[in-house]
Amino acid sequence: MEFDDILLSRIGTGVTILCAIGSIVGWWHSRRAATEAQTAVQQIHHQRHVRLAGTVQTSLNSAIKLLRTVGPGCNAEKIVGITMEPIIDETEQFLEQFQTTFSGSALAEKINVPVDVFTAEIRTHISALSDAITPGEKLRESRIIYTKLSSLQPEICRVADDFTYNPKGD
Hints:
Layout: H1 2-68, H2 76-79, H3 85-102, H4 115-131, H5 135-164
Helix pairs in contact: 1-3, 1-5, 3-4, 4-5
Transmembrane segments: 6-28
Keywords: Membrane, Plasmid, Transmembrane, Transmembrane helix
């Protein structure tokens, strides 16, 4: 009888040890899976930021391209035949994307521009441009908008390049 008790005790101890080893192996596998999931989430966020920064950069380039027609190279005679609506629409689309992307998000800390102040200032000039009657007023406001957006371009390019050429997303 005593031999049976010792045998059962040893079998129970062995099973307990095997269960402990199994739980350690399971813990190790779940830890590795959690780390991989966390890395995947970081990569998804990084790819999203790459896409958003690229979209804003493309939109800014389109707005600047349209604004060049009424920018520093334009004069009062040339501006008479230019329709302002497409320029204003493209600039507004850029401002919406810029504000949505950089205002109050994780990307806000990447750009050295007060986003809400900048967009409010540009919108004031857009409003003045759409209300302008004389070619001189249109020329002045369009040049201001062109200059301000052009000054933003290096900053947007830097942010887009940081995300594009930083595969780890640091």
